[in-house]
Structures are given as structure tokens and as C-alpha cells.
């Protein structure tokens, strides 16, 4: 991957391009590359003055020929360029054609997995910056990335196909989560992506991802006011075989929260302790699946405090939140949520 191509791992740059926000594209590209307006203009066939007026929002780009020059000159990745051209990728529901392509995995043939490896790194970047950039902005980018992955799958077999199935499942799960966060569509849309992700994870033999998607399905049910079903689903995620400690910890925490919601506080606290113990078996990020990069000691302690809060054990909740919350840097949305619970628990002591 060349240095210029590496710039496109940046979530803000990809989101700006997908939404055709060319002033933001130019500013972000120059920030990442260190190029002057003159140098960027040379790449895309524009004068320095035109680049300046575009960056300041004084000139709109409406010409398809200019857009094509920009995408070629800045080496816009294929999947991002596809999102620029095909605005239908903003649709929320998974389409049958996409799922049909995945169903044809294990066919004869070979495929270059470098594209998939790059998209795996890019998705990891999206996960880490979603709190700052916003999932809604990144939706067409990730949706287009999933399109690129599913086009690769029919020509793969064996371990390569399984690798692509995991990557497709990760993308589908991310889309489910963003649809939930942004309140787009009904719960059926959210669950459609979750079920799609779960099926692909099972097909590829990826127990951790299959468990994680069930865990998230339980989360959606619990938030939707159905704790009984949430507990059943979380238990299915927790009891699955072949799980890593981190994946089992995540599922166990969700079981604890669901148990608290149905009024079984003793079970909830027991499961919370078990979740904390399991999380501590994977102290390093390299010990955890990519989508559980965040489940460090701080997060595990906050989850235990959240269970205490759900069980109305206010003093334990306050102690846990106070101890762990200061270390939750870089995640303003999560910090605000846990801080609100801390303040509420303090009022109830």
C-alpha cells in the first residue's frame, strides 16, 4: 500500500468522500498528506485558486468530469468511489443480491485477499472513530465496503472464504449497530442485519463473532423492553462452545444485565463477577477479537458497576463508576452515559 493509499484508512476522509463533501475531502486530504493547495491542485487538475475556493465552500463541484479527476488524482479506493456514484447504498435494509453472493462461497477459484485485509484495517479504524465521526456519516462507506467483500466471496474457497465471511459478518454487525444507534427504520431492520451477520459468522466457523452478534441481539431486545427474550438470547451467546475469554466475558455481562432486568439479582451479580474474571484473562488488545478491542480492565470494571446499578446496589455502583470512569478517555458518548449513571446512583444512596 502506497503512502497516498494509506491516507484512505482515515474514517473522516472516507466519510467526506462518500457524502461528496469535497471541501472536507480537500482539507482532510491535505491535513493527512501535508500537501499544499498548489500540490493538491496538480493531482486533480485544478488551480490553487480553485482548490482554495472549494475548500472555503465558495465553489460547488457539479461536473462529473471534475469528480472523476478528483477520484483518480487522489486514488479514492474502489469501494469509496462506488459509494460516491451509487447513492442507493444509503438504503437501510440488506438486499437479497448481497446475501445471494455470500451464499455462493466455497466455489472454485482464487482471489487476492489484499483488498480484504485492507478493508479489515479500515473497519477497525471506523470502529475507533465512530464516536467522533458518527455512524450515520460512515454508513454508505461501510455499506459499500460490504459490497466489495461480497463480490469477492463467490470466487473463494476454503480458509480464504471463511476469512471473507468473518469480514462480511463484522460489517453487517456494524451496520446493525449503527441502524440502532441512529434510530433508522424499525427494529426489524436492525435485526435483519444482525441475523445476516450471525448466519455469515456461523457459515465461516467463527464462534466469537456468532456469539457477539447474539449478545448484541440480546442488547436490542433488552433495550426494547423484552428482558425475558433478552436473557434467553444472551444465555445462548454465553454458552456457545469454542469462545475466547473476551467473547465469553461480553456475553456473560449481557446475561448479567438481562438477569437483573427480570429481577434475579443474585444471578446477575454472580454473572457480573464471572464476566469481570473472564475479561481479565485477556488483558492485552491482541488477546481479544478485533471488535472487542475496547474490553480492557477499565471497561470490564464499568460493566460490573453497570450491573450493580441495574441491581439497585447503589453503593457498589458508585464505587465502581468512581474508580474506573476517569480512565475512560477518548469515548465522550460512553463517558457521558456512565457519568449519568454515577450521578443517579449517588442521589439514591
Write up this protein.
This protein is mainly alpha-helical and 349 residues long. Among the domains are: 1-76, 434 Repressor (Amino-terminal Domain) (Orthogonal Bundle); 84-183. Helices cover 71% and strands 0% of the residues. The chain contains 19 helices and no strands.
Task: Give a brief outline of the structure.
The protein has helices at 3-6, 11-18, 22-33, 37-44, 48-55, 64-73, 78-85, 96-103, 114-133, 135-152, 158-182, 187-203, 207-223, 227-238, 245-261, 265-279, 297-310, 314-324, 332-348. The protein is mainly alpha-helical and 349 residues long.
Describe the protein's topology.
Elements lengths: L2 H4 L4 H8 L3 H12 L3 H8 L3 H8 L8 H10 L4 H8 L10 H8 L10 H20 L1 H18 L5 H25 L4 H17 L3 H17 L3 H12 L6 H17 L3 H15 L17 H14 L3 H11 L7 H17 L1
Specify the overall morphology: globular
Number of helices: 19
Portion in helices: over 70%
Broad structural category: mainly alpha
| Main sheet attributes: strand count, strand direction, barrel closure | none
Order of H and E elements: HHHHHHHHHHHHHHHHHHH
The chain-level mean pLDDT equals 89
Low-confidence stretches: none
Supply the key terms.
349 residues, mainly alpha, 434 Repressor (Amino-terminal Domain), 19 helices
Amino acid at each position: 500500500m502506497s503512502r497516498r493509499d494509506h491516507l484512505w484508512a482515515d474514517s473522516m476522509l472516507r466519510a467526506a468522500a462518500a457524502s461528496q463533501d469535497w471541501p472536507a475531502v480537500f482539507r482532510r486530504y491535505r491535513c493527512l498528506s501535508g500537501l499544499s493547495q498548489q500540490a493538491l491542485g496538480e493531482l486533480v487538475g485544478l488551480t490553487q485558486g480553485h482548490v482554495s475556493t472549494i475548500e472555503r465552500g465558495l465553489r460547488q463541484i457539479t461536473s462529473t468530469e471534475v469528480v472523476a479527476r478528483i477520484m483518480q488524482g487522489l486514488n479514492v479506493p474502489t469501494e469509496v468511489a462506488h459509494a460516491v456514484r451509487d447513492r442507493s447504498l444509503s438504503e437501510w435494509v440488506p438486499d437479497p443480491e448481497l446475501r445471494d453472493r455470500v451464499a455462493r462461497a466455497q466455489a472454485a477459484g482464487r482471489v487476492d485477499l489484499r483488498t480484504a485485509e485492507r478493508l479489515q484495517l479500515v473497519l477497525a479504524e471506523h470502529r475507533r472513530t465512530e464516536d467522533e465521526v458518527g455512524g450515520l456519516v460512515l454508513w454508505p462507506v461501510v455499506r459499500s465496503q460490504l459490497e466489495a467483500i461480497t463480490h469477492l466471496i463467490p470466487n473463494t474457497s476454503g480458509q480464504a472464504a471463511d476469512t471473507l465471511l468473518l469480514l462480511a459478518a463484522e460489517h453487517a454487525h456494524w451496520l446493525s449497530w449503527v441502524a440502532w444507534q441512529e434510530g433508522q427504520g424499525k427494529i426489524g431492520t436492525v435485526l435483519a442485519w444482525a441475523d445476516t451477520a450471525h448466519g455469515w459468522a456461523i457459515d465461516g466457523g467463527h464462534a466469537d463473532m456468532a456469539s457477539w452478534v447474539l449478545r448484541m441481539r440480546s442488547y436490542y431486545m433488552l433495550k426494547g423492553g423484552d428482558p425475558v427474550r433478552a436473557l434467553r438470547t444472551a444465555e445462548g451467546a454465553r454458552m456457545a462452545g469454542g469462545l475466547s475469554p473476551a467473547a465469553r466475558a461480553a456475553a456473560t455481562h449481557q446475561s448479567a444485565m438481562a438477569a437483573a432486568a427480570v429481577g434475579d439479582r443474585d444471578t446477575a451479580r454472580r454473572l457480573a463477577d464471572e464476566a469481570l474474571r473472564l475479561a481479565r484473562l485477556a488483558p492485552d488488545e491482541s488477546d481479544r477479537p478485533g471488535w472487542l478491542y475496547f474490553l480492557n480492565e477499565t471497561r470490564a470494571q464499568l460493566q460490573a458497576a453497570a450491573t450493580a446499578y441495574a441491581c439497585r446496589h447503589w453503593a457498589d455502583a458508585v464505587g465502581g463508576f468512581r474508580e474506573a470512569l476517569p480512565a475512560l478517555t477518548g469515548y465522550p458518548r460512553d463517558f457521558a452515559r456512565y457519568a449519568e449513571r454515577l450521578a443517579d446512583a449517588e442521589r439514591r444512596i
